[in-house]
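Summary for the steering committee. The consortium agreed at its last meeting that each partner would contribute one worked example illustrating the joint modelling workflow. Our contribution is presented below. We chose a case with several input lines so that the handling of multiple components could be demonstrated. No manual editing was applied between input and output; the record is shown as generated.
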Amino acid sequence: MIESLENSKIKFLLKLKLSKYRRSEQKFICEGAHLVQEARNAGLLIEAYSLEDKEGYIQVSVPVMKKLCNTNTVVSEIGLCKMKENTKITDKILILDGIQDPGNMGSLMRSACAFGFKTLFIGTGSVDIFNDKVIRSSQGAIFKLNYQFGDISEFLNKITHKVYTTNVLEGIPLKKIKAEDKVAVILGNEGNGVSKELQALGLDAIYIPMQNTESLNVAIAGSIIMYELSK
Amino acid sequence: MIESLENSKIKFLLKLKLSKYRRSEQKFICEGAHLVQEARNAGLLIEAYSLEDKEGYIQVSVPVMKKLCNTNTVVSEIGLCKMKENTKITDKILILDGIQDPGNMGSLMRSACAFGFKTLFIGTGSVDIFNDKVIRSSQGAIFKLNYQFGDISEFLNKITHKVYTTNVLEGIPLKKIKAEDKVAVILGNEGNGVSKELQALGLDAIYIPMQNTESLNVAIAGSIIMYELSK
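What follows is the complete predicted structure of the assembly.
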């Protein structure tokens, strides 16, 4: 049983709390039995750590697990995972332009998985998808999606998909968007929406008709759009 | 300018951090200029407090405001609001059976408002809708909805609406639900879904078709259902 925070494996895991190490090492941590199982199913689990002495796990003490966990409650197991090396571009793509809230990001990943938007393109300025809160909200979707990172405009040059931005005030009502085999949807930042640079490209915008001048949470708006386009 | 935490107004506001006082006093606090304005627009603002000396506000010191706020960042103003006395039952009703996460509750309120589900029935066992996190996520929807609290089964006896439960695995696919003028949708707890007691009533269940055996966040599933039924 590992009881020391000076243990080299533990020191490595602790470093992964920082996004820059996650990126340079191409590894991240997931917390809880459900996510460890999802990582294993996806072939992305490198090692698993448990409070118990059981096969296939490295045992750690409660104080060590406490240090490794990002939640207040100590989980019984965590997994060291590798990032998926998959730059595949599927027919349906979700493009995220500055999504900041980890809960929104995780929920969007979960919905993307449910509605067959199997490729995520994450523009610069979005929250790190390997953040512990994102992984928790994603409920395992992080192990099932393809993702790419970078400049959205450059990415748009490479794909042949029909691309839509989103707008809360005007555009094509969602119900009138006709089904396309290859479609990409751009969602913008919680406060400011899709960036001006992308708005200036003259792409068609989808809007969701609402009563009065209400607005929707971005994870909800994005999920409704993916639901409608998933047929 | 109020500088003392012993001031009777401040002591009253601090008491409202507890749900039992909010309920007995029928009052609650909202934080931030946007929500104070929404409360004012809805005629539900009793008093407003600001860090600045300005008309229509009671000025308080920064340390007092810090104590009043629930967020880490100190807001510039807060509002003392009265709960809406409105037991009106509209044609579209959202019934919440044990929603626990404040963010989910607030997002659902925001979507309910956007899609015309103007009555919320909150069953026992759900998070308090006057909780500060719920109010923040609701983005002002809390001032626009009618709400009632109590036992869901008893409430169902009183209404003449077509009532649907929700199920992640089976039921009537959402697209096949036919439009009804008067409709009520029951959403269940994040982990356990709709309670067994309500499932035993033999109500029709709505389900949202998804790929594989994914599931959706409850606020997202509920919002998609309200979107689809809002036509």
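The longest strand of chain B covers residues 45-50. Chain B touches chain A at residues 103, 107, 110-111, 113-116, 137, 139, 141, 208, 210-212, 214-217, 219-220, 223-224, 227, 230 (CB under 8 Å).
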